[in-house]
Task: inverse folding
């Protein structure tokens, strides 16, 4: 192509590929009335999960009904503020709306037996180690919405 259209050639098979450079904005509206307490917990600095009264399974993210036994009798439990880093990855390629900074996302195992996927905040990527102690951090995202994440203990 002559460079006047956004077309590149696939490295594997040489097929021309159109590169659409328009920004795509997605907006979701998801009813949360049965798990609204989770969001209330964030405003109090707490990470909440649900626990089935019938089978004792703990769920994070919280569930309105038990996926294991189908019971609607769930109670709220506060999750621990500390856990261990089980896995992580560094995000180098991200949507424009996420900013320019590279960031880490990890899975943190909590004593209640749940694994939480979340952003790892304020961590030097060279210092991240599997098995490291992590502490819950709740704060605003780039748009001012409360979100949860973890940061290494001692950072």
Result:
């Amino acid at each position: 192509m002559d460079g006047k259209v956004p077309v590149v050639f696939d490295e594997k098979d040489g097929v021309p590929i159109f590169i659409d450079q328009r920004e795509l904005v997605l907006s979701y509206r998801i009813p949360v009335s049965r798990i609204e307490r989770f969001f209330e917990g964030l405003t109090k600095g707490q990470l909440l999960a649900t626990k089935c009264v019938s089978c004792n399974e703990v769920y994070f993210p919280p569930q309105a009904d038990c996926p294991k036994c189908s019971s609607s009798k769930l109670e709220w439990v506060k999750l621990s503020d500390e856990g261990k880093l089980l896995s992580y990855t560094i995000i180098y390629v991200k949507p424009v709306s996420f900013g320019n900074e590279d960031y880490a996302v990890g899975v943190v195992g909590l004593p209640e037996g749940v694994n939480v996927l979340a952003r790892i905040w304020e961590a030097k990527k060279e210092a991240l180690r599997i098995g490291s102690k992590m502490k819950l951090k709740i704060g605003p995202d780039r748009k001012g919405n409360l979100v949860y994440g973890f940061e290494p203990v001692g950072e």
Q: What stands out?
A: The mean pLDDT is 90. Residues 36-43 form the longest helix (8 residues).
